[in-house]
Amino acid sequence: MNSYRISGATGDWEVVIGLEVHAQIRTAAKLFSSAATEFGAEPNTQVSLVDAAMPGMLPVPNRECIWQAVRTGMAIDAQINAWSRFDRKNYFYADLPQGYQISQLFHPLVGAGHLDIVLDEKDPENSTRRIGVERIHVEQDAGKLMHDQHPTMSYVDLNRSGVALMEIVSMPDMRSPAEAGAYVRKLRTILRYVGSCDGNMEEGSMRADVNVSVRKAGEPFGTRTETKNVNSVRFVMQTIEHEANRQVALIEDGGTVVQETRLFDPDSGTTRSMRSKEDAQDYRYFPDPDLLPLELDEAFLADARASLPELPDAKRRRYEQELGVPPYNAAVLTAEVEIAIWFEQLLQQTADQQAKPQAEVARQASNWLMSELFGALNRIGRSLGDSPVSPASAAQLLALVGDGTISGSIAKQVLERMLETGDSAGTIVEREGLRQESDTGAIEAAADAVIAENQDKVEAYRGGKDRLFGFFVGQTMKAMQGKANPQVVNDVLKQKLD
């Protein structure tokens, strides 16, 4: 049951949300030309004659772009249309040299599919929702207007003109900012697993048009607005929050929501009107006469499906069911493809160094990664991608704990040294003399000294205060500078105190 509502003077309002996500296809060339797509290049240095719409230039589809869009559709269980067609979307704007955009309105490459999102990773069974995807169509991007380069004129950068985009259109199935945020995060994860888009929202390679309307529960959909080019998950959620409240206040004051295009201002967290929303007929769509329909044969489709990696939901199930990784850990470890790759390299390296059951290794490795390495990296402001600790060196550290060479507490110190110096765990342990002491004689001597200094606590322990046992363990470990084998310490103290 959805609990997100906007409270108004006339009662509670429900929010209806749909997202149109534009994802830049990860290729070295544009959709219809061989021009480069590298981010950050000098303005107008990646523009072919096709992109600039010079007379007589004909577009030629980039096979890799079609391949990646098909693979993306397959990853969300969508219908793949073996026959599709390009259309011209006609409008005039200074950053659109052709005077039209090549898109796919009537016959998209990918049809209906879905995404399953989880709103609470600690309770996935009761918080999973399925969001429908209406379609994925392929289209070319426009250029970029630059208004801050001259006091009286705007400049045009056509580097993005013709860049291949997938427009991923959801159904209006989301009912809260949290659901929309989870949808964008899940979609980004899938795109990065597939490799069809890098998902970098800050650079504009993934951005969302946010459609929002409000209604009383059970009533027909209200009039929606579309907020363009929102480039972060947080901003998507802020857009929905602001726009829903704005529409409710407007309606309850006797006004009418106008179907329009709006812009989000990240500084104020508000939206503002940009222009009235055009309908399809305003763009005068018609089939592009320069492009034949796309016809995909069975071999192409079979190869595309066979090329897909293990996707995040399947990987998560495998971690939980086959490896015994706790559900929350599995969710975090599969949320980003880089983390999953790192974890699996750690598993392989750990299995090579420890003769233990795979499930035991997986639980140990996942718990260490979640509780120790992530925390340590966060403290020094680094991510797993630029961690000084590699999977191989992490596996060596875990192996030293597993065979009793060092204790768990010493392992924390060793990890800090690894992050500071980049040295291996073995090197640090030997250089700093951190090997765990399992010599019973040395531990017994330390325990005897602790017991002799705390006779009052010995009497209290023997009188029934069992919790004092931890005190003796701690004092003995302190006397051994943390290097004593905890199990040996426990055994020795049990013998002496009981």
UniProtKB/TrEMBL annotation:
Membrane-spanning intervals of the chain: none
Gene3D superfamilies named among the record's database cross-references: 1.10.10.410, GatB domain, N-terminal subdomain
Protein name listed in UniProt: Aspartyl/glutamyl-tRNA(Asn/Gln) amidotransferase subunit B
Function as written in the Swiss-Prot or TrEMBL entry: Allows the formation of correctly charged Asn-tRNA(Asn) or Gln-tRNA(Gln) through the transamidation of misacylated Asp-tRNA(Asn) or Glu-tRNA(Gln) in organisms which lack either or both of asparaginyl-tRNA or glutaminyl-tRNA synthetases. The reaction takes place in the presence of glutamine and ATP through an activated phospho-Asp-tRNA(Asn) or phospho-Glu-tRNA(Gln).
Pfam family, one: GatB_Yqey
Catalysed conversion reaction: L-aspartyl-tRNA(Asn) + L-glutamine + ATP + H2O = L-asparaginyl-tRNA(Asn) + L-glutamate + ADP + phosphate + 2 H(+); L-glutamyl-tRNA(Gln) + L-glutamine + ATP + H2O = L-glutaminyl-tRNA(Gln) + L-glutamate + ADP + phosphate + H(+)
Enzyme class: ligase
EC number(s) per entry: 6.3.5.-
Domain of life: Bacteria
PROSITE patterns xref list: GATB
Residue ranges that the Swiss-Prot or TrEMBL entry lists as coiled coil: none
Gene this protein is translated from: gatB
